[in-house]
Amino acid sequence: ETTGAHTLYSRYRSNDDPNWDRDSPYKTALQNIVQDQGIGFVLDLHGMSNRHKFGLALGTMNGRSCPDFEPLILETVQAQFQQTSQGIARNFTELRWDHFVLNHPRFTGGVANYTITRFASEQLGIPALQIELCSSARVVERRPFSQWKTPFRGQPEAIEQAVALLQSLVATLMTTF
What we know:
Number of strands: 7
Strand order of the largest sheet: 1-5-2-4-3
Radius of gyration: 16 Å
Order of helices and strands: HEEHEHEHEEEH
Distance between the termini: 19 Å
Oligomer: single chain
Number of helices: 5
Shape: globular
Structural class: alpha/beta
């Protein structure tokens, strides 16, 4: 709401997986919104577990999904998070939510599967960026239920910084259109 950006999301218990299915109702809806509203950039937000030991992963399909925007994106993210590499992050002994990696092999944005980032870039012809946020930077509180047996609380500072980053990223990208 604070950015004025359009939002489309998939529910956790949906029967489709828009990030793996080649075709899905989500992708059809995205295509319609992009065409009807003249969307110029897609931010594809995801959640990853804290086990990766870094706060966020940016996926640009190794530079292919938004080549003209990658330097601007990196500059914006580096103002709030510290860039690291997969090799260095692998040796972190605890979560460093204020660190990020670019094109981690597990989070490339769609080199090997049919992600929203890949769909937007290749099928819709618009630049896209996949952002994976660790649990501590996106989950305010999770109560136990069938999949997660233990409660969880994210880190307020990490959540605030992630929200600020997303707002800044949207504002920065909107100035380019």
